[in-house]
Amino acid sequence: MLLSMKEIISKAMSSGLDFSQKGVLKSFLYRMDLDEETYDRVYVNLKNNSLEDKVSKVKFKDRIVLLPQCLRSSNGCEAEIGEYGYECKNCGGCDIDKIKSKAEGLGYDAVYIVPGSSMAKDVLKKKDPGAVIAVACHSELVEGFEASHVYSIPMQGVPLVKAGCVDTDADLTEIEKKLQLRSE
């Protein structure tokens, strides 16, 4: 029997277990005989659902955006690596410029283009934002949720629509929705 994502999440939520830690969810999903990729997708969805309200209460000026370096164009990106990742030159050669402009227009504290989870964790630790909107592949988002939990920083994750380590794609509409989250 193949369950839909909605059915899996419903079963997980109705179990009464605390899924704030990755291991609990992994154990639960293992018993449902789900593969690692499905586990990552379910985990990201559960964490997004459980943390959306907390993120929405954080002012834009206290939030940051973490973007993966793989969103950069492999064909002529002008960004240079700095202390906290790549520094976008707003060349318009990829979607990073659009995401960065939207976040800055809303008043976000900063947008970081990180080459991997180690630097993303370093940004969380050193910058201590009130909330994070992160874009990455599912497995990196799982790591991001774990790191943000350690630092007590609520997060929303937007999975890449085309994964890989070069020239990936993101859903700009979904990113914009996450960037605009706020409580009334």
Summary of the model, kept short:
46% of the residues lie in helices and 15% in strands.
Question: Can you characterise this structure?
Answer:
This protein is of the alpha/beta class. The chain has a domain at 53-179: 3-Layer(aba) Sandwich (Rossmann fold). The protein is 46% helix and 15% strand. It is built from seven helices and six strands. It has helices at residues 5-14, 22-31, 36-56, 96-106, 117-127, 138-150, 172-179; strands at residues 63-68, 80-82, 85-87, 110-114, 131-136, 155-159. α6 links the parallel β5 and β6. α4 runs parallel beside α7 (172-179) and α5 runs parallel beside α6. The longest helix has 21 residues, at 36-56.
Order of helices and strands: HHHEEEHEHEHEH
Radius of gyration over all CA atoms, rounded: 16 Å
Low-confidence segments, given as residue ranges, are none
- Number-wise, the strands total 6
Q: Please tell me what the overall shape is.
A: globular
Output mean pLDDT: 88
CATH topology of the domain at 53-179: Rossmann fold
- Kindly, what is the distance between the CA atoms of the first and last residues, rounded to a whole number of angstroms? 41 Å
Main sheet properties:
4 strands, parallel
CATH architecture of the domain at 53-179: 3-Layer(aba) Sandwich
Primary descriptors:
Rossmann fold; 184 residues; two-stranded antiparallel ribbon; alpha/beta; 6 strands; 4-stranded parallel sheet
